[in-house]
Amino acid sequence: KKGICYRVSALLYPLLGACFWASVAGYKPVIIVHGLFDSSEDFKNLKMFINQSHPGTNVTVIDLFDRSASLEPMWKQVEGFKAAIYPIMQNAADGVHFICYSQGGLVCRGILSTLSEHNVNSFISLSSPQAGQYGDTDYLKYLFPQFVKSNLYHLCYTGVGQRISICNYWNDPHHRDLYVNSSDYLALLNSERANPNATEWKKNFLKIKKLVLIGGPDDGVITPWQSSQFGFYDNNETVIEMQEQDLFLRDVFGLKTLAARGDLIICSVPGVQHVFWHSNETVFHTCMEKWLE
């Protein structure tokens, strides 16, 4: 009997090993896009979390537009990141996953909207101002010391202002018409201004399998914090949640379709400040891990 058991074990263990490595090889590559003033160095913890939970995953943090270069116009960043990411996609027959942090979440939306042959499965938007930004934050005071949120529109909604990334998604609820007519980036992505590419961009965006929107009330930078989940202020600075937003109700770029498909995931985590989202292990296990298969 011992001999039989040994022979079975000798056959079984290599088989189990082969199954294990087949499952490892099955993890899709993960592409990480950083945010304002970040660099690829800031994502060591997130890479570690991914490799601990999904051993063997190919994780690439795109090393472009680091630090002050992250102030470059958003469309310029979209084209740069797209050129770096596309070869990774081409080498991934089963597709890739995106984790896009803060401003990077808006860069990734630009890529997903304009790249018809993308193969992104999960698009994880990690505390990103998806509906825009309007707040007196430390970032604002550092970048524009002579401005506060109520008068930044004087700069942002000009040709000069639109050459600064943050102005491309600055969304002043008290100057809605100026935003719609001046925003060269977010107003186009949201089809808030007439966009001849809107139908194609929506079709491209809806090729994703899952949209995961992560944010929380203690963020301290994304303002309102609900912008990370497509909520935003009305002209009284009352937050209107995503499901009541015009861009959702009219399904302008696919949010309502994703929700109807069951592919729109909202993950809210209290107690996390903006700069710690990508290094918080609880956030990873709660909001990201299961979408990286």
UniProtKB/TrEMBL annotation:
InterPro entries: AB_hydrolase_fold. One of its GO terms (molecular function) is palmitoyl hydrolase activity. Gene3D superfamilies: alpha/beta hydrolase. Keywords: Glycoprotein, Hydrolase, Lysosome, Signal. Its EC number is 3.1.2.2. The keyword Hydrolase applies. It comes from the Eukaryota. It is an enzyme of class 3 (hydrolase). Catalyzes the cleavage of thioester bonds from S-palmitoyl-CoA or S-palmitoyl-N-acetylcysteamine (unbranched structures) but does not have activity against palmitoylcysteine or palmitoylated proteins, branched structures or bulky head groups. Conversely, hydrolyzes both long and short chain fatty acyl-CoA substrate. Belongs to the palmitoyl-protein thioesterase family. This is palmitoyl-CoA hydrolase. It comes from Takifugu rubripes. The gene is ppt2b.
